[in-house]
C-alpha cells in the first residue's frame, strides 16, 4: 500500500512541481532561442 502520510504527499507534490518546472524551463529556452534567431534574421534583412 502507498504511504499517504502528509509528509509523503508533500514530497510527491514537490517532486512533481520540480519536474514540471524543468520541462517548462526547457520549453522556454527553445522559445528564447527561436526568438533570438528571428531577431538576428530581421536585423540581417535591414542591413
In brief:
The protein is an all-alpha fold and 47 residues long.
Task: Describe this protein's structure.
With 47 residues, this protein is mainly α. The protein contains one helix and no strands. The model has no long low-confidence stretch (mean pLDDT 91).
Give the helix/strand layout.
Elements: H1 6-46
**How many separate helices?**
1
| Proportion of residues in helical segments | over 70%
Strand content: under 5%
Low-confidence stretches: none
Structural class: mainly alpha
Salient structural properties:
47 residues, 87% helix, rod-shaped
Amino acid at each position: 500500500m502507498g504511504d499517504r502520510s502528509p509528509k509523503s504527499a508533500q514530497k510527491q507534490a514537490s517532486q512533481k512541481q520540480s519536474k514540471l518546472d524543468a520541462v517548462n524551463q526547457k520549453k522556454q529556452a527553445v522559445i528564447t532561442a527561436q526568438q533570438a534567431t528571428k531577431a538576428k534574421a530581421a536585423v540581417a534583412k535591414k542591413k
